Structure formats: C-alpha cells, structure tokens
Amino acid sequence: MPKKNVLHITYDMRIGGTEMVIKNIVNGLKLDVNMSLFCIEEPIGQWGKDLIEEGIPCHSFERREGFDWRLIVAIRKVINNKQIDIVHCHQYTPWVYGAIATFGTKARVLFTEHGRFYPDSSNWKRRLVNPLLSNMTKSITAISAATKQALVDYEFLSESKIKVVYNGIEKVIPSQDQVEIKRALDISEGKVVFGTIARLDPIKNQTMMLEAFANVISRGLDAILLVVGDGELMESLQQLAKRLDIEKRVIFTGYKPYPADYLNIMDVFLLSSLSEGTSMTLLEAMSLAKPSVVTDAGGNSEIIKHKVNGLVVPNDDQQAFADAMFGLASHIGLLNEYASNALKIYQEQFSSVTMNQQYLSIYGK
C-alpha cells in the first residue's frame, strides 16, 4: 500500500509548544507517511528551517490582515500538486483556511486544537461557521479533556466527534552535569531548587509564584527559585523579588533555547499558570523524573495526578501554592516517590511514541 501524503498547516514553525508537537509528529512518522508543511505566516521559523534541512518540504505564505482568499488558493495548489490525502490543521485559523482549501479535493481534514485563550470566549460568527467547518472535517482532536470541553462550549462542536490525544515529547537529554550547572549559577549543594520554564507573561502568573516562594522562605526552608525564560514581565518580576526581599534567592536566567540543563537541576518543577493546554515543559520535567506543583488550570490536572506525581492546587491561590511547595520539599520520601511516578507516567502516557501512534491511527481511518 502506498504511503499517505500528509500536509500540516500551522501559523509558523518558530520554537514553541505547538511547533514542538508538529516537529515530533513529522520526525516520528516520516517513515510511515509522506510529510510536508504549510505555514500561513512568515518568517517560517527556526524549526521550519531545520525540517527543510532534513528534507521535509515546507511552504510558507505571508498572510494579509483580515480574511485572505489568496491563501486558500495557495494551500489548494499544494494539496493538488502533492496529491495530499490528509490536511492536518493545527489551531483554529489554519483549520479555517485548510478546510476551505480542501473543498472538492480528495483530501480529508484533521483539526487539532492545541490550547485556548484566557479567558475563553466565542461569538455569533463561530456559532454559524464552525458547524459548517466541522461537516468538512473528518476528525477533530484536542490536547486535553479541558480543551475538548472548550471546543464544545465555545466553538459549538459535537463532543462525540472530538478525540483527546495528549501531547507527547521525546525524553529530554541534558548536555551538562548537574554539578557544573549549579556551580555556574552559584547554587550550593543542599539547597532545594524550585524552578519554572516559561515566558514571563501575565497568563503564567509568575507574580503569584514569587509571592508563594517568599512565603516558603519565611518558614525557614533553604531554597532557590530558578526562573528560566524571558518576556514582558521580566523587569516587574525582578522588582517584585526585591520588594519581597528574596532577590538573592531568585535566579532569572533569561531566555534559553535549550533549557534542559537547567530543568535537570530542579528538585520541584512549578507551573502557576492561569490557563494551560498541555504544557510541554511539564512533560519535559516528568521525563527527567521531576515532581511538580501546578495550578488546576486547563490540562494541568490531567498530567499531574494529585499526590501521585505532584500536587495540584486551586488556580491563583498563593497560600495553597506555598503550602504545596513547602510540604513537598520538606518530605524527601514523598518527593522521591512522586519523582519516580512522574517518570513512569511520562513513559506510559506522554511519550512522543504514544502520541504518534494515535495520530497514525487517525491518519489511517
């Protein structure tokens, strides 16, 4: 039987969570299906360039503001020229363009929703258009049960048509020894290292995280908070650390394109987001056997099982977040148990192999 031809449609292939998922699907299944990409925005991004170097055809288009009919023509040309069997659309806008472009062709449409804005919302246009798009779409997947429910509540899609396929990643491989990284950051042995990896953005609620960390420090725990990432809140968070008198215990590394070495020295991974889909850094932490403290936002509680591989606390609750941090770091037995469970759950549910097999099954239907 000849291989199926799959065209992934996305915004671009810059370094990010959705882009990592697409990259993992392409690399994981390129021996089983013929893969190609279409980015509806430019520039194509670093991971797009990497895939081109690996021999994966990547097309891009500079989309105009508003609805750009030229884009439909461009996508349709690729579908016909490459005899595409499946158009895998990632996120809502690529789905709109991809579904319309397939009309009258042999291509089947798969729409994957990777996450939602906070706070979530809808409008009358989507109430009218989305059922029509759904009729043009063979399969719909969501990266968490919470995301699936949002598609039902805000996009007016049929619950029975949506399948949950959790994101999967390849196991993270640090390049440097823990001792070397701690020495470079001047972190002495024996200190508990809390850490997070995320853009510094209001949606990630790092303000609450710093306040919770200050609470933990006030209880006498000898700890460091490692914040890996950059963003609009960098300066304000640094100022907050000074006001809380914890600036000597908080390390802001700035943006690191490959942060695995920093993740590797964390004893407890923190995710304080107000909204999440399936956090890729949370999965990376689990692949390195890191227990986590997370807010009950989006798909977090589907990945972190409370009192199994970490602790889940109410959203935007500084006291509960601090209590969880202190309680986990103060009990080495629990910390080790959750760490072991984190690695096991990653291997069973959230590896790229598990994700790719599910998508391969959908492609074959």
Plain-language structure description:
This protein is an alpha/beta fold and 365 residues long. The protein has helices at residues 17-29, 46-53, 69-81, 92-101, 124-135, 145-155, 178-184, 206-218, 234-243, 260-264, 280-287, 300-303, 318-329, 332-349, 352-364, and strands at residues 5-10, 34-39, 58-60, 86-90, 108-113, 139-142, 162-164, 192-197, 223-228, 250-254, 268-271, 292-295, 310-313. Strands 3-2-1-4-5-6-7 form a seven-stranded parallel beta sheet, sandwiched between helices. A six-stranded parallel beta sheet has the order 10-9-8-11-12-13, with helices on both faces. The protein is elongated and about 65 Å long. The two termini are 14 Å apart. The mean pLDDT is 95.
Features:
365 residues, alpha/beta, Rossmann fold, 7-stranded parallel beta sheet, 15 helices, 43% helix, Glycosyltransferase, EC 2.4.-.-, Glyco_trans_1
pLDDT averaged residue by residue: 95
Number of helices: 15
The Cα radius of gyration reads: 22 Å
CATH superfamily of the largest domain: Glycogen Phosphorylase B
Q: What can be said about the biggest beta sheet?
A: 7 strands, parallel
CATH fold description of the largest domain = Rossmann fold
Q: Overall 3D geometry?
A: elongated
Query: How are the strands ordered across the major sheet?
Result: 3-2-1-4-5-6-7
If classified by CATH, what would the architecture of the largest domain be? 3-Layer(aba) Sandwich
Structural classification: alpha/beta
GO molecular function, one term: glycosyltransferase activity
EC number: 2.4.-.-
Protein name: Glycosyltransferase
Enzyme class: transferase
